[in-house]
Amino acid sequence: MTTEERFGRVIDWFRENMPVAETELKHSDPYQLMVAVILSAQCTDKRVNLITPPFYDRFPTVDSLAKASREEVFELIRTCSYPNNKAQHLINASQKIVNDFDGALPQEIDQLMTIPGIGRKTANVIAAVAFNKQALAVDTHVFRVSARIGLTVGSKNPLETEHQLTRNIPLEYHSIAHHWLILHGRYVCQARKPKCNECGLAEYCLYYKESSADLSGL
Q1: Domain spanning 3-21+137-216: which CATH class is it, in words?
Q2: Confidence at residue 157, expressed as pLDDT on a 0 to 100 scale
Q3: CA distance 178 to 184
Q4: How confident is the model at residue 24 (pLDDT cuts 50, 70, 90)?
Q5: Residue from 45, 46, 96, 121 carrying the catalytic annotation
């Protein structure tokens, strides 16, 4: 199977079996999404969704967060991973948005990446989810699943994975493909024990093909 054929079949399968795929982070505006995505780094969406309601109540706007103390922010997010760093990132990000962008989160990826705590993955998520742009964020799930299936070959980092995926996935699917691959990695193609026997992509998957060959040779 060629790379083009594999991409085509994988996309067709997702289009049929997962026509709706969205972030599981709860939010109601770009500011809330920014907070949730920053908190989600090396933390589960489930945990973030427990933390954010009281956080949004206390800091309903980017302006209110820009004036917050690190200690107060820390207390609200202390149960997520790396709360000290994330508290400072959230405050610095809000201050940057207030001072440089008139209090409105920018829509362009390059501008988003100038904000403290927002790297390329986070910028892509915000651009895609909050502003409906065709951007494909690569997190650990996307990186792993893409390599296992064979959508990427020899990729050493998230940026290489992003380039290989966006080169082969039609532009109109970049945003939803991010969610397809994340959700597939979260619930089926899990890191430690992928559920290959339940996976509808098994017949197109290099990992499954190689694993089956290894077992048949025992």
Answers
A1: mainly alpha
A2: 96
A3: 10
A4: very high
A5: 121
Closest CA to 174 of 125, 105, 118: 125
Distance CA 56, CA 79 (A): 16
Is the Cβ–Cβ distance between 136 and 177 less than 8 Å? yes
* Active site annotation includes 63: no
DSSP class of residue 87 equals H
Residues 12, 67, 133, 139: which is the catalytic one? 139
Q: Is CATH 3.30.460.20 correct for 30-131? A: no
Q: For the beta carbon of residue 177, count every other beta carbon within 10 angstroms.
A: 26
Q: Token pair for residue 141?
A: 């799930």
| pTM value surpassing 0.85 | yes
- Give catalytic status of residue 102 as yes or no: no
- Tokens read off for 22: 């969205």
Polymer length of the chain: 218
The domains of the chain are located at 3-21+137-216, 30-131
Q: How does pLDDT run across 52-77, given as a tens digit for each residue?
A: 999 999 999 999 999 999 999 999 99
CB distance 113 to 20 below 8 Å: no
